[in-house]
Amino acid sequence: MGAIIRTRGLTRRFGELVAVDGLDLEVARGEIFGLVGPDGAGKTTTLRMLCGLVDPTDGSAEVAGHDVARAPQAVKDRIGYMAQRFGLYADLSVRENMDFYADLFGITGTERTDLARRLLAMTRMEPFRDRRAGQLSGGMKQKLALMCTLLHRPEILFLDEPTNGVDPVSRRDFWTILYQLLKDGITIMMTTAYLDEAERCNRVGLMHQGRLIRCDAPEALKRAAGVETLEAVFVGTVRAAEAAEMP
Ligand SMILES: Nc1ncnc2c1ncn2[C@@H]1O[C@H](COP(=O)(O)OP(=O)(O)O)[C@@H](O)[C@H]1O
Ligand SMILES: [Mg+2]
Predict the structure, then answer these.
(1) 37 lines ligand 1 (CB under 6 A)
(2) Full domain range(s) for residue 190
(3) What is the pLDDT of residues 137-157, one digit of tens each?
(4) CATH number of domain containing 240
(5) CA of 207 to the centre of ligand 2 (A)
(6) Which of 17, 149, 156, 170 gives the lowest tally of CB atoms within 10 Å of its CB?
(7) φ/ψ of residue 38, rounded to 5
């Protein structure tokens, strides 16, 4: 299957700091890819470059057939990006938040009504459609953010630590929805700090200090490095060089 995301030497500097350092990565159409690493590894900066929100300082990335630096708008039209702190309006209801984002994307009429109905059913949020976003649980807020991200029918979904701070039951719920989206043909790239979540991805890239130190199926990564090493990478105690040298 062809790659729907492809980066070559993708790099982002902030002054002296190299936040993302020469990333070479391919994500196949229809897969769920997890970018895993400790705080400051460069996960968010990578996603923001792939979404056309931050310019690379070096290298390139092609997303859904478009170069992110040359055609950021074409990329934005084809993707959904759920930021770590997604902007919901606390005083607006679930349905009003969805309408707000539908307006932003220019989704109107029966298309809007049909899509909203389907999304509310899929996420089982229908009973809460009139509840104010500020009154929702953490898990329900994440579902609402996800629905708002899906309103313009993106081909690729970028999720930045979507279940961070969400209770285990809601996390499981959220994953059920992600698998449904995969079945519908959406490609998903997410970041996470949770080991069990990384294991649910088709492939995982381990990031450390801006570099991709390993990239493989989760089972293969575990076989190669041992669970202890993987866990150490997650808490950021293994130096990149050491991890990269593991047999
Ligand atoms: N806008 C910015 N200006 C300066 N430094 C930044 C900026 N955004 C991110 N960084 C730095 O880049 C590094 C990677 O950050 P980030 O991509 O947010 O990592 P992660 O999402 O893995 O925690 C961090 O050291 C962070 O402080
Ligand atoms: Mg981040």
Answers:
(1) yes
(2) 3-245
(3) 999 999 999 999 999 999 999
(4) 3.40.50.300
(5) 11
(6) 17
(7) -70, 170
